[in-house]
Give the backbone structure.
Amino acid sequence: MWKGATPGVCRASAAAMGLFTSYETSKEQMKILMPNNLALGFVIASFIAGGCCAAVSMPFDNAKTKLQN
């Protein structure tokens, strides 16, 4: 039942690591750079985190797809 779960778990772990770490870092930087407009800073931090998440998890996603086909 769990035979093919390893590539998916690796991809999900990489995506979570890239998303959470980059969001928290970006959010703290946006607080410093934009202290008067926190909502916009958090939106920008979300976009940055989404890009980092995609960049970090893409190799694992590619490997997962190749293994599943």
